[in-house]
Amino acid sequence: MFNVNKLCLFSCLCIIVVIVLYFQTEIARLEENYRKLEFRLVQSHTESREFFPKSLERNDDDTVVIYNRVPKTGSTSFVGVAYDLCKRNNFKVLHINITANRHIMSLNNQYRFAQNVTKWHEVKPALYHGHMAFLNFDRLGTTSKPIFINLIRKPLDRLVSYYYFLRNGDNYRPHLVRKKHGDKMTFDECVERGQPDCDPNNMWLQVPFFCGHAAECWKPGSQWALEQAKHNLVTHYLLVGITEQMLDFITVLEATLPRFFRGATEYYLNSNKSHLRQTSSKIEPSILTIEKIQQSTIWKMENELYEFALEHFNFVKRKLLAKEANNVAQIYFYEKIRPK
Length: 340
Ligand SMILES: *[C@@H]1O[C@H](CO)[C@@H](O)[C@H](O)[C@H]1NC(C)=O
Ligand SMILES: *[C@@H]1O[C@H](CO)[C@@H](O)[C@H](O)[C@H]1NC(C)=O
Ligand SMILES: *[C@@H]1O[C@H](CO)[C@@H](O)[C@H](O)[C@H]1NC(C)=O
Fold this sequence. Notes:
CATH superfamily: P-loop containing nucleotide triphosphate hydrolases
CATH architecture: 3-Layer(aba) Sandwich
Strand order of the largest sheet: 2-3-1-4-5
Distance between the termini: 66 Å
Largest sheet: 5 strands, parallel
Shape: elongated
CATH class: Alpha Beta
Number of helices: 13
Strand content: 5-15%
Order of helices and strands: HHEHEHEEHHHHEHHHHH
Bound molecules: 2-acetamido-2-deoxy-beta-D-glucopyranose
Oligomer: single chain
CATH topology: Rossmann fold
């Protein structure tokens, strides 16, 4: 008798526990649904045009992006995407042609360029591109500052690509006769004979491009220049992509600057821009050549910058593209806004 009672009590308790647990999970589920709805509401609010005051919209249309492209880093493919999108997304693309392809602007031109780029409202929003070293607008007394973006490539790949580009040109402008046209020496032979065209000092280009307009930037092997380049890369650039990961670069840009790059990822995937402009008859260097080049200080320093950029880019990319566990992209919103 007593035992039956005890059993009955135990089962009752069990049932109660099960019911409580059931309701608790149900409440948690509803709460989560509610939170998701709240997120969606906030998202749709921020996406709807009416929600933003007009002044903010105009701010977005004031944006100036500068892409100070390094030669032979896949920049033509990327710029091609911008040229193809500019009409659809309603922004302007301008090429900065610096005479004789100098990467350094004279001081008077730096000043004029900075004033012009920030004040020329008729062409805004605009993307400027050109082969010029990073220009720090802090020095130039402008009231607003542009957004810098860039791409970086494995230093030896870039040098080899440039070496053959000077000799064979590319499929972009196949009939243009290049500086070293007709020279049949391979990169391996060049390294073996210690010719100036494959001198590791020629790799000193991405460090000075990111370092800027100071004299020290252009001294091959300068430790200060390398540190400055790293510093600029993380403090003055919105985004620096990796040539080997062009698609991800475009995707991150689309998510961050949709005013310019809306639809860019899909466009890049479906167009043949990814194959545009390949250096003709490029011969991969031998293991021996690679080992020899990798012993040079310049390669080591340039590679250090590349690895630094790669790690930073992957970090940025992971934070952006990795969805939360429940497959909701990260958002943020304001709350507790006081006084009402
Ligand atoms: C820059 O301008 C010069 C002179 O007009 C022209 O010859 C050259 O092709 C231009 N550079 C590029 C990359 O278009
Ligand atoms: C900027 O430079 C361009 C080309 O020289 C010129 O047409 C334009 O008027 C300039 N804009 C400003 C605001 O100075
Ligand atoms: C690539 O694009 C160009 C220009 O849009 C076009 O003329 C060419 O046929 C395309 N090639 C392929 C393989 O799709």
